[in-house]
């Protein structure tokens, strides 16, 4: 396969990289009182798996997310949760830390962070405390 046909998923290292990203992110969520309180399940493992599968699919990896969860419709799925700027910034802070643990080349790191920032801003659904 020629290099330009590789997906971003493949380029960054595939499954183990997305598994680590989701895992490091959820380590941060587990220690964050504001975010942790939002999760309906005590066990964050299943949420970690859903995030991993979604990001893999988004970046050109396997479509397991949609095969098991249907169309992402992420903004709609987040409506039950109060995502104000504080929650968004906490989410992004844990994500930035998780991305840094991947030690990606600068261009890939920026590509990922830019997307995550845009997505987190799009998920904000209230400006109330
Ligand atoms: C901005 C702050 C955000 C907060 C506070 C937040 C919080 C949550 C919560 C509480 C859940 C439910 C846990 C579960 O059962 O899976 C969830 C689910 C999910 N979140 Fe977020 N989220 C945020 C942003 C994002 C962003 C930016 C993405 C994607 C780039 C994302 C992807 C997902 C996915 C894929 C699920 C599982 C959806 C499903 O299949 O049910 N979230 N999020």
Q: What does the overall shape look like?
A: globular
CA(first)-CA(last) distance: 51 Å
In this entry the ligands are:
protoporphyrin IX containing FE
Q: How many domains, as an integer?
A: 1
Q: What is the beta-strand fraction? A: under 5%
Return the string of H and E elements.
HHHHHHHH
Query: How helical, in percent, are the residues?
Result: 55-70%
Largest sheet: number of strands, sense, barrel closure = none
What is the CATH topology classification name? Globin-like
CATH architecture name: Orthogonal Bundle
Structure explained in plain terms:
- The protein is an all-alpha fold.
- It has one domain (11-123): Globins (Globin-like, Orthogonal Bundle).
- It has 8 helices and no strands.
- Helix 2 packs across helix 4 and helix 7 runs antiparallel to helix 8.
- Protoporphyrin IX containing FE binds at residues 35, 38-39, 47, 50-51, 54, 69, 74, 77-78, 81, 83, 87-88, 91, 119-120, 123.
- Protoporphyrin IX containing FE (HEM) binds at residues 35, 38-39, 47, 50-51, 54, 69, 74, 77-78, 81, 83, 87-88, 91, 119-120, 123.
Question: Layout of SSEs?
Answer:
Elements: H1 8-12, H2 15-30, H3 33-36, H4 45-58, H5 64-69, H6 74-77, H7 85-101, H8 106-123
Helix pairs in contact: 2-4, 2-7, 7-8
Protoporphyrin IX containing FE is lined by residues 35, 38-39, 47, 50-51, 54, 69, 74, 77-78, 81, 83, 87-88, 91, 119-120, 123.
């Amino acid at each position: 396969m020629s290099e330009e046909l590789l997906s971003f998923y493949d380029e960054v290292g595939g499954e183990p990289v997305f598994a680590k990203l989701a895992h490091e992110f959820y380590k941060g969520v587990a220690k964050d009182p504001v975010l942790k309180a939002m999760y309906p399940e005590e066990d964050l493992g299943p949420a970690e798996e859903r995030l991993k599968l979604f990001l893999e699919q988004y970046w050109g990896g396997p479509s397991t997310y949609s095969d098991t969860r249907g169309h992402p419709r992420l903004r709609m799925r987040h409506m039950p949760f109060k995502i104000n700027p504080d929650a968004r910034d906490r989410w992004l802070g844990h994500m930035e830390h998780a991305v840094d643990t991947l030690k990606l080349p600068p261009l890939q790191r920026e590509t990922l962070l830019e997307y995550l920032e845009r997505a987190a801003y799009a998920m904000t659904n209230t400006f109330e405390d």
